[in-house]
Amino acid sequence: MIRTTPVLSNLDRVTILSEALPYLQKFRGKTIVVKYGGAAMVDPALKAGVITDLVLLSSIGIRAVLVHGGGPEINFWLGKVGIVPEFRNGLRVTDAATMEIVEMVLGGRVNKSLVSLIQQAGGQAIGLTGKDSNLLKARQMIEADIGFVGEITRVNPTILNTLVKENYIPVVATIATDSESGQALNINADTAAGEIAASLRAEKLVLMTDVPGVLMDKNDISTKIKILDIRQGRQLIEQGIIAGGMIPKIECCIRCLAQGVTAAHIIDGRSKHSILMELLTDEGVGTMIVGSHGSTTR
User: Fold this and answer.
1) Contact indicator for 278, 205 with CB cutoff of 8 Å
2) Measured between alpha carbons, how far is 270 from 263 in angstroms, rounded to an integer?
3) Can you tell me the distance from the alpha carbon of 94 to that of 101, in angstroms, rounded to the nearest whole number?
4) How far apart are CA 114 and CA 106, in angstroms?
């Protein structure tokens, strides 16, 4: 379901631009890593909004990096060849046949379609997988018994730094290379985005999800937490308030903050222009995770 926004008057638009100016100045020349997935990747209108947001950020001098998954598309093509998708603890069970489909779909069809959309919107993009330029090295998670699924051991950000300095938007499909065997490994997109953000010393990590942010009561949007620090995040996990699929997202944010990323954001990709609303307005639209409440400026 697309979350609609009210029609704005011309005065509203000017006011929004005025409010955004300090953020545009603050983030110019800084790196922002966006993990793209969920409903925003399936609905054409939402997809167009995400692409437009990224191109706008790049056009004003913000160094944007897009990291993407592609679950629904992978499932569709698995179905075409008669493979039933299987998940354990939120991770795709990836045997050899599934890995071939994952690499074909993520690194080919999904990646190149996003590159094309960015360029149609007026931006410049280069599509990559984690195998290119040794961007992502990983080890197979043998203990989890889920096949060719990897845990990142090293990120080489050289190619990304080169591209963003020339105003390209890198579009990264989360396939890594096994450090020992050279085997392609499937990587969780949230985890990959966090590790890439840390390696780039990014200003922001933005995780696009299908929820409004971190909620004290998962059934009540009014309980959304606007700013959360690491200590509070860990406490809410212990208390069971942060649960299920939100746990790995928060843990991903905590890891990248510990490695030097200034702030991480969890936003609802079902809302139009949620990236711009989160980064360029005083209120934001999601949950911002910071190292401590001593640094809570968006």
Assistant:
1) no
2) 21
3) 10
4) 11
Question: What gap in Å lies between CA 104 and CA 186, rounded to an integer?
Answer: 12
pLDDT tens readout for residues 62-93: 999 999 988 888 989 999 999 988 888 777 88
Burial of 183 by CB count in 10 Å (0-12 exposed, 13-18 middle, 19+ buried)? middle
Over the stretch 194-224, which tens digit does the pLDDT of each residue have? Answer: 999 999 999 999 999 888 999 999 889 999 9
What does the H/E/C string look like for the chain?
CCECCCCCCHHHHHHHHHHHHHHHHHHCCCEEEEEECHHHHCCHHHHHHHHHHHHHHHHCCCEEEEEECCHHHHHHHHHHCCCCCCEECCEECECHHHHHHHHHHHHHHHHHHHHHHHHHCCCCEEEEECCHHHCEEEEECHHHCCECEEEEEEECCHHHHHHHHCCCEEEEECEEEECCCCCEEECCHHHHHHHHHHHCCCCEEEEEECCCCCECCCCCHHHECCEEEHHHHHHHHHCCCCCCCHHHHHHHHHHHHHCCCCEEEEEECCECCHHHHHHHCCCCCCEEEECCCCCCCC
Choose among 106, 93, 178, 103: nearest CA to 144: 93
Burial of 244 from C-beta contacts in 10 A (0-12 / 13-18 / 19+): exposed
Angle at 120 between CA 115 and CA 126, to 5 degrees: 25
The pLDDT value recorded for residue 41 is 83
User: Taking Cα atoms as reference points, which of 65, 36, 62 lies closest to residue 171?
Assistant: 65
Handedness of CA 45, 3, 288, 70 (dihedral sign): negative
Q: Token pair for residue 78?
A: 């698995």
Residue 254: the pLDDT is 95
pLDDT of 6 above 70: no
